[in-house]
Amino acid sequence: MSDQDFLSILTGSFSTPCGDNPTVAMIEAGYKKAGLNARYINCDVPAENLKDAIKGAVAMGWAGFNCSIPHKVAILEHLDEVAESARIIGAVNCTSIKDGRLTGHNTDGKGFLASLKTVTDPKGKNLLLLGAGGAARAIAVETALAGAKTLTIINRDPKKAETIAKIVNENTDCKATAGKWEGDYTIGNDIDIAINATPIGLGDAEALPPINLDSLRKELIVADVIPNPPKTHLLREADKKGCTTLDGLGMLVNQGQIGVEIWLGKTLDFDVMTKTLKDIFE
Ligand code: NAP
């Protein structure tokens, strides 16, 4: 056995408060199945320690790390390179370290896109986004770069939807429009894919985004970013109408898988990662 065999490949997550992070179990189960001597470590990194934490990761030879609130924007100034979609989104949640060089990516939208592509190609399609937070912004940019024809973004605070529409219109060929979300929203007949990108439904199987349920046509693809519970009230209603549905669990697993592909060039077992998350969430 060489010295190298004793060294773990180090990856992980920087956030604060870091709390219970199901991604740890999900990725480590994938590492184990792949026979990789790799770890995914959940680190509580306060905002003022981000720079030192990054230096530490580089010094220890980490392959890369995820970061979430409050680091997704602050990390930009510490990077050597930023991938195109992360630059447009203006936030990084996945950083790779190669030969001491740091490259930032955003895997939120990429995870959603990978999930979406299991049922359809967004190219030439009309998308509706409910919500205009960080997840919505990442999904908007990634689906627009993938060739979506139009994006309609609605939000309680229309200014946030307008900001995303502007970013999409300035950086892609997709035509984005923004609107205010008031009352039960009626999904237009021209929409091909409707996406809940709000936290409505997280940890609450009965919560339902305010939409006109009669506007769920069977031709519609309905996606939810909520990973837990995976079968949200919205998706159950969409199932009843015969729509194709996509849950946020798939998005989360894809996001984790894409991060490891960026760091290690290895594709972890999707089913093992999904089962690990389902066991945690049940
Ligand atoms: P965020 O930045 O806080 O944005 C939340 C958005 O939802 C805002 O546009 C907000 O509207 C809207 N919203 C919140 N409560 C609402 C309500 N009751 N009615 C209507 N709109 C409401 O959050 P985020 O980072 O985008 O995350 C959103 C969700 O995505 C979270 O639940 C997160 O767990 C999930 N997510 C999942 C994955 C995955 O891999 N599955 C990845 C990332 C995020 P206002 O602006 O008007 O307040």
UniProtKB/TrEMBL annotation:
Protein purpose: Involved in the biosynthesis of the chorismate, which leads to the biosynthesis of aromatic amino acids. Catalyzes the reversible NADPH linked reduction of 3-dehydroshikimate (DHSA) to yield shikimate (SA).
Catalytic activity: shikimate + NADP(+) = 3-dehydroshikimate + NADPH + H(+)
The keyword Oxidoreductase is annotated on this UniProt entry: yes
Ranges where the SDH C-terminal domain occurs: 248-278
Top EC group: oxidoreductase
Active site: 72
EC code: 1.1.1.25
Swiss-Prot/TrEMBL keywords: Amino-acid biosynthesis, Aromatic amino acid biosynthesis, NADP, Oxidoreductase
Pathway assignment: Metabolic intermediate biosynthesis; chorismate biosynthesis; chorismate from D-erythrose 4-phosphate and phosphoenolpyruvate: step 4/7
Summary of subunit composition and partner proteins: Homodimer.
Family: Belongs to the shikimate dehydrogenase family.
Residues that coordinate or bind shikimate: 68, 93, 108, 255
Residue sites binding NADP(+) per the record: 84, 131-135, 225, 248
GO molecular function (one): shikimate 3-dehydrogenase (NADP+) activity
Domain Quinate/shikimate 5-dehydrogenase/glutamyl-tRNA reductase: 119-171
Domain Shikimate dehydrogenase substrate binding N-terminal: 25-94
Gene behind the chain: aroE
Protein name in UniProt: Shikimate dehydrogenase (NADP(+))
UniProt key word Cell cycle: no
